[in-house]
């Protein structure tokens, strides 16, 4: 399974925020923002900070999707 942060990007658009705005408000590093942008895993602490700033739950900003790189099969 892969992680998708598409819900996060949609939420930012709905709220009229940029990625940089979110980064500053949530006090996350540029490295965390880069990992989010690449669809890589980040710490739960970072996700918690984002959820607090956006006043939402974890399921509102991320989801697991089928990993197409292995033919949709879980490792």
Describe the structure.
With 75 residues, the chain is mainly α. 49% of the residues lie in helices and 8% in strands. It is built from 4 helices and 2 strands. It has helices at residues 6-15, 19-26, 30-37, 44-54; strands at residues 2-4, 63-65. Strands 1-2 form a two-stranded antiparallel ribbon. Helix 2 packs across helix 4. The model has no long low-confidence stretch (mean pLDDT 92).
Topology:
Layout: E1 2-4, H1 6-15, H2 19-26, H3 30-37, H4 44-54, E2 63-65
Antiparallel strand pairs: 1-2
Coarse morphology: globular
Walk across the major sheet and give the strand order.
1-2
Number of helices: 4
User: Total strand count, please?
Assistant: 2
Query: What proportion of the residues form beta strands (DSSP E)?
Result: 5-15%
- What is the end-to-end distance? 8 Å
Return residue spans where pLDDT drops below 50 for at least 5 consecutive residues. Answer: none
Which structural class do you get from the secondary structure elements? mainly alpha
Mean pLDDT: 92
Give the radius of gyration.
13 Å
Order of helices and strands: EHHHHE
List keywords for this structure.
single chain; mainly alpha; two-stranded antiparallel sheet; 4 helices; 8% strand
Structure, briefly:
The mean pLDDT is 92. The chain is mainly α and 75 residues long. It has helices at 6-15, 19-26, 30-37, 44-54, and strands at 2-4, 63-65.
């Amino acid at each position: 399974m892969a992680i998708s942060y598409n819900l996060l990007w949609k939420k930012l658009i709905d709220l009229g925020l940029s990625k940089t705005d979110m980064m500053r408000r949530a006090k996350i590093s540029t490295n965390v923002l880069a990992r989010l942008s690449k669809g890589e895993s980040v710490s739960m602490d970072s996700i918690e900070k984002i959820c607090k700033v956006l006043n939402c739950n974890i399921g509102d900003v991320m989801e697991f999707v089928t990993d197409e790189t292995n033919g949709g099969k879980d490792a």
